[in-house]
Amino acid sequence: MGFAYKFHDPDSVYFVTCATVQWADVFTRSRYSDIVVDSLQYCIDKKGLVLHAWFIMTNHIHLVISRNGNNSLSDIMRDFKKFTSSKIIEAINSPTESRKSWLLWLFKSAGTKNSNNTNYQFWQQENHPVELVSTKFVKQKIDYLHENPVRAKLVDTPERYIYSSAKDYAGQKGILPVTILDQVYYGK
Angle between the 73-92 and 100-112 helix axes, to the nearest 10 degrees? Predict the structure, then answer.
């Protein structure tokens, strides 16, 4: 992991991207997105994760996060990825998944090539945390994150996408608790 991709300041706000191995389109099924949502909720409730903005696309997630407590963001993200990996692999292994053989082969192939894994690898190794150091940069990242489903033509406005914090930033209530970055950070 290079210097640019580490959580250096434990009290900063970070933009984080997590992508599936080979950019596999796993999150086209809501049951897998729901596992991510449930895990984020757990990390908020039990691990001190502060979620400022978030988004789940078909093959990756973006988060704007900080922490509240003693757990480091590295530890929170490690635990989040480990838990979601095992739960999603378990869910893929169900008889109802039409892509089961292909997905399990893909994640098993990646897992056998990586000495950090015992069996399957679901997420790419890196989180790519980028410290958000200016109001302009925060606004740019949050706007980018919320506009993703519009650019992909999944919805016509960001707040119509359920797996996102765009509703929260539009003054509505989303499906996860979000700590909105105020004017100092977000520039509204």
Answer: 140
| pLDDT one-digit tens code per residue, 59-86 | 999 999 999 989 999 999 999 999 999 9
Cα–Cα distance list, 107 to 94, 128, 154 (Å): 15, 20, 26
**Cα 57 from Cα 116, distance rounded (Å):** 26
For domain 3-186, give the fold. Answer: Alpha-Beta Plaits (3.30.70)
pTM of the prediction?
A: 0.92
Q: CA-CA distance, 51 to 64, in Å (whole number)?
A: 6
Tell me the C-alpha to C-alpha distance, in Å, between residue 45 and each of 10, 11, 69, 86, 146.
Answer: 19, 18, 11, 20, 24
d(CA 177, CA 166): 12
For the chain, the domains span 3-186
